[in-house]
Amino acid sequence: MDHKDLTNTIIDATRAQEIADGVHRVMDGIAQAESGAGRSAGSVKLLAATKTRDIGEILAAIDAGVRMIGENRPQEVAVKAPGLAKLLAERGFDLGVVGAGAAGAAGAASDSRAAERESIPFHLIGQLQANKIGKVLPVVNTIESVDSIELAEKIARRATMRGITVGVLLEVNESGEESKSGCAPSHAIDLAKRIGAMGGLELQGLMTIGAHVDDERVIRAGFAHLRRTRDQILASGAKGTANCRELSMGMTHDMALAIEEGSTIVRVGTAIFGERAFI
Question: How far is residue 8 from each of residues 59, 79, 126, 151, measured CA to CA in Å?
Answer without folding.
Answer: 11, 11, 22, 32
